[in-house]
Amino acid sequence: MLNAIAIIFGYFTLQSHHQRSTAFQPWLSGYAFLCYAVALILLYAGGFTTTIGAGMVFPDWPLSNGSLNPPGWTVDQAMMAEHGHRLLGSTVGSLCIGLVVWTQLREGRKWVRRLAIFALGFVIFQGLLGGARVLLVNTDLAMVHGITAQVFLCILASMAVACSRWWRNLPTPDSLDADAQAYWRQQRWIGGVLVLLTLTQLTIGSVLRHAGVGMAIPYFPEATADGSLLPASWNWATGINMAHRATALIIFLFVPFWAHRTWRAPGATRAMKGFVMASLVLVFAQVLLGASIIWTGRAPIQTTLHVLNGAIFLSVTWVSVFAYAKPLLSQSECAQNLIAPDKDANTVTTAAWQTPATSSRS
Fold it and tell me: Does residue 207 sit in the same domain as residue 119?
């Protein structure tokens, strides 16, 4: 049904006579954000399925008990969680088909069109990975599936940002002096470290969840009943729990440093500062949600919200880093337009590097 809608959407888009353009397109921007928002719901559904242990409630794939509409799935929590997750997955896949069609026909920036294709390829990979986890009854694949889902969310966040109005308000290379460009290069490296730390933390958390050792240390912020910060005895389970806590502390201290540097960055826009402020709020909320898992004995809602908030934190942090790549992407697009213009005669490019009045767009 959803695939048919995507095909019909693509057909009618093909019939239009609108040209590709690098100008801001509000409907495309809204659609890209819709893809991100639905992917968030999908991620929550997948996280809840894992939390309640319902990942193998159906032994087959892509059907569920041999049906697209398995009997009883609307009244059984485990079946509803897993089948709902599958339906949401197909929804996101269909939305990504629409995103590819739309950008191929209307978007003038080549890197954005390629990013949309990459997003579609990645969601197909995610679906196959989830199916392989079921068919092979492999917990390791389930762990990888959970981690790559958060990477996919960052890809969609990049698409939403690239299509947004505020992306066009970011500085272009000709508006940054040499010192400012050097500062932005430093920010790309520092931000990259923060993103890698966050991915490492999410990987550790995924191992905890799928190995079932998240409550190996049932106290927080202490590690023992007598108030010690270190566990009384060490083994693999307590070790990985302590690694999760230690990495969380590093990130918790790193984010204010990152926010401070962004606030004093030359050319930083209000939106860039807003994203790092959001990161500060999200990292604080993540610590509270993590603590609530311990305090409530791993309650499903708090546990799943911890997963969801971690994914949002990763994507928001990634966006705050991705913004510093605008000058690089703008230079690349400029070179393509001036040296090797798009061969599609219907492409309308913006002479952003020749006309000062439009230098804030790319």
Answer: no
The boundaries of the domain holding residue 64 are 1-10+24-168
Q: What is the pLDDT of residues 260-315, one digit of tens each?
A: 999 999 999 999 999 999 999 999 999 999 999 999 999 999 999 999 999 999 99
DSSP 1-44: -HHHHHHHHHHHHHH--PPEESS--HHHHHHHHHHHHHHHHHHH
C-alpha torsion 78→309→152→60, nearest 10: -10
Q: Number of folded domains in the chain? A: 2
For the record, the structure tokens of 184 come out as 């932005």
pLDDT reported for residue 221: 92
Count CA atoms within 13 Å of residue 60 on its CB side. 8
From the list 140, 145, 114, 143, the residue with the least C-alpha distance to 42 is 145
Q: What is the pLDDT of residues 149-165, one digit of tens each?
A: 999 999 999 999 999 99
Structure tokens at 107: 């978007």
Q: Show which of 138, 168, 198 is a domain's final residue.
A: 168
> How is residue 345 written in tokens?
């005669």
Predicted TM-score (pTM) above 0.70: yes
Express each pLDDT in 220-240 by its tens digit: 999 999 999 999 999 999 999
Is residue 351 situated within a structural domain?
A: no
Decide: helix, strand or coil at residue 64.
Answer: strand
- DSSP-assigned states of every residue in 153-169: HHHHHHHHHHTSHHHHT
Contacts of 344 (CB under 8 A, 6+ apart): 20
Question: Quick check: 312 and 299 in contact, CB under 8 A?
Answer: no
- Asked whether residue 312 falls in the same domain as residue 328, the answer is yes
